[in-house]
Specification:
By secondary structure, the chain is α/β, with parallel strands linked by helices. It has 3 helices and 4 strands; from the N terminus they run αβαβαββ. It has one domain: 3-Layer(aba) Sandwich (Rossmann fold). It has a 4-stranded parallel beta sheet, with helices on one face. The protein binds S-adenosylmethionine. S-adenosylmethionine binds next to α2.
């Protein structure tokens, strides 16, 4: 799972461990505090093209890194199943309404936070 992730991303590991053994192909995952995205990119491969991973982080610098690497990853694995939202975890459900909700109701099956 790490082989396809850019080296700089792997070396910039701010997480602890790898909880993605809990996920299954097709899962729709919300990653709270996705950071630069290492776990999110492992997860994206586990859930596959039929699944998706939404990363949420309040730090625009982290989001910038992960958004850049998302393009590299989509090329490497052949599909793009990740996207990102900027916001505070504790306020995600208050941001946006209707179709503009940051995390639409019933769009997530399982939550990750590493
Ligand atoms: C240790 S790093 C993330 C590591 C990443 N989950 C991984 O496993 O590679 C923690 C991240 O959580 C974000 N964060 C912390 N508290 C947050 C909050 N209340 N709302 C949104 N993001 C938060 C920080 O901006 C930071 O990018």
């Amino acid at each position: 799972m790490l082989q396809l992730i850019p080296d700089a991303e792997v070396e910039r590991d701010y997480g602890c461990g790898d909880p993605t053994c809990r996920f299954r192909p097709g899962d729709r995952v919300l990653d709270l505090g996705s950071g630069s995205g290492k776990i999110l990119f492992i997860c994206s491969q586990v859930v596959g093209a039929d699944g998706s991973v939404l990363g949420a982080d309040r730090n625009p610098d982290m989001l910038s890194l992960s958004r850049q690497d998302a393009l590299v990853m989509a090329d490497a694995i052949g599909y793009g199943n990740v996207r990102f939202v900027e916001g505070a975890i504790e306020a995600l459900d208050e941001q946006g309404h209707g179709a503009g909700q940051l995390v639409p109701d019933a769009s997530i099956y399982i939550v990750l936070s590493n």
